[in-house]
Design brief:
The chain is 0% helix and 49% strand. It is mainly beta and 484 residues long. It folds into two domains: 22-348, 5 Propeller (Tachylectin-2, Chain A); 357-482, no CATH class. The strands form seven sheets. Strands 9, 10, 11, 12, 13, 14, 15, 16 and 17 form a nine-stranded mixed sheet that branches. Strands 3, 4, 22, 24, 25, 26, 27 and 28 form an eight-stranded mixed sheet that branches. Mean pLDDT is 91; it is low at 4-36.
Length: 484
């Protein structure tokens, strides 16, 4: 799925809660308040440390990953890169099985002549349905490809698929010198009798939504939101842009009866909607990063094709879920793709809370004793790091009214990776690798200190203990991260 960065439209603030208020229980979060609109500043997200599931390879996902739980309790992932493959494993983190091709590109002249990318899997009556991104008239060197969506059905847990036909397309044809059409959609069951597909229109890079009856999602049954109703045919019909929504990676949040959409554009951002049409975006990123540079290699890392997956697969999530994405390290190109996964939690509080997002800061260690303190995947060519110790949770934006410190991650093959105040890596004799996040300048409730330490050989490292893990001397206090 040859992609370019989406245009982000971020709206902050808490939506007005003006309708009749309904109290609902949230998994792991006690009781929260929900109304016609969702209070986006009442949403809280916690991300655990990243796990590299697959890679490096040029064949790692070129689309959001889907995951299902099999009848025997094992899991099956669907990863697409022109050809869609199925990969089995005992857990969502164990996808080391052989990749089996289940969807190949279609014949020349067909809408899928350049590939069949399975982007979502939904449960039907005794069968699976798959949303499939298609491309034709592709000349990627010239930036040309024409996109559309089709739907397929499987009766054997996704090992074979019967393509039923196209369901979403644009009212334009192939365009010289640019991408055209409509695609990159993911779909989620809205728990209201309809399936909703969130897509991108290439003529203006706007997002839109189409839906179909959950009991009959066949071609011809999908309708686009026109701005006044679900009355525009999804095949070649017009759609209204979704103001305030960014991205196409959708999941339905069952605990809050809300639709979620993720976008990897100028950091990984989450949007939420109670009516599946009008979205607001959390002011704080889910993952903070420097750039969204698709021209590789680049000095920054790349996060692409995020997915939110339920504990038992599919993308109807509760208080706990899995976040996956395709990752390319700084300095690497598309031949060095990795599939990365986090455990995550999401809650809806009764009132706004700040900060809203906490991301695990962890220390990793290699066989030579070098350590690396990072919030991201600890990937560097020729070196292998294993999880060593938790250091707390950092913020992805500066907190309100409380002094904070922005931290950078420094790295060198000789000294490993450590944290310093933003802009300080070169003064420490290392290169800046990425932004780590924000910590409090002074101690707050439920926080833990983070120290910059020096080994007896004057190698800098990061510790969560005042004695620097009895491995060196304390140089300075960097700040305070959340304990949990």
């Amino acid at each position: 799925m040859k992609s370019s960065p989406a245009v982000a439209r971020v709206s902050g603030g808490c939506n007005a809660i003006a309708a009749a208020i309904l109290t609902i229980p949230l998994a792991g979060a006690g009781t929260a308040v929900l109304a016609k609109d969702i209070c986006d500043t009442c949403i809280n997200v916690r991300l655990e440390y990243p796990r590299v599931v697959r890679g490096p390879s040029r064949h790692e996902p070129d689309a959001p990953v889907s995951l299902i739980e099999l009848p025997d309790g094992r899991f099956r992932a669907f990863a697409a890169n022109g050809t869609t493959v199925a990969i089995d494993g005992s857990t969502p983190f164990d996808l080391s099985g052989r990749a089996q091709a289940v969807l190949m590109p279609g014949p020349a002249g067909s809408p899928s002549e350049c590939g069949n990318w399975l982007t979502s899997v939904l449960q039907g009556a005794g069968v699976l349905y798959g949303l499939i991104h298609n491309e034709q008239h592709c000349n990627y060197r010239r930036g040309e490809t024409d996109k559309s969506m089709s739907i397929a059905r499987s009766a054997d847990e996704g090992l074979t698929w019967d393509i039923l036909g196209q369901i979403i397309s644009a009212n334009e044809g192939p365009a010289p010198g640019r991408q055209s059409g409509e695609g990159d959609c993911t779909a989620a069951d809205g728990d209201d009798g309809f399936w909703y597909a969130y897509c991108q229109r290439l003529s203006d890079w706007k997002n839109f939504v189409a839906r179909a009856p959950a009991g009959d999602p066949a071609p011809g049954k999908w309708m686009k939101w026109s701005g006044s109703g679900w009355d525009s045919p999804a095949l070649r019909g017009s759609a209204a842009p979704l103001d305030g929504s960014i991205g196409m990676s959708a999941a339905y949040w069952t605990s809050a009866n809300a639709m979620l959409v993720l976008a990897a554009a100028s950091s990984l951002r989450l949007s939420v909607s109670a009516d599946k049409i009008h979205f607001s975006t959390l002011a704080e990123p889910i993952i903070l990063y420097d750039d969204n540079q698709w021209n590789r290699p680049a000095p920054t890392d790349l996060y692409a094709y995020p997915s939110m997956i339920g504990e038992h697969g599919f993308n109807n999530i509760g208080g706990r879920f899995f976040l996956t994405y395709t990752y390319i390290p700084p300095g690497a190109d598309f031949t060095q793709r990795y599939l990365v996964m986090h455990e995550a939690r999401i809650e809806l509080s009764a009132a706004p809370r700040h900060p809203q997002v906490r991301v695990a800061l962890s220390r990793w260690k290699n066989d030579d004793g070098l350590t690396w303190a990072t919030t991201g995947p600890p990937i560097f060519a020729g070196m292998s790091f294993k999880y060593d110790a938790p250091l707390g949770y950092v913020m992805t934006a500066p907190p309100q009214l409380i002094p904070s410190v922005k931290l950078d991650e420094c790295f060198s093959p000789r000294f490993g990776g450590f944290l310093t105040e933003a802009g300080g890596c070169s003064g420490e004799g290392s290169e800046r690798h990425r932004v780590a996040g924000y910590v409090f300048r002074s101690e707050q409730a439920d926080t833990t200190p983070i120290f910059s330490c020096l080994s007896p050989r004057y190698v800098r490292y990061t510790s969560g203990r005042p004695d620097c893990d009895s491995a060196g001397t304390r140089d300075r206090l960097l700040g305070y991260a959340f304990r949990g």
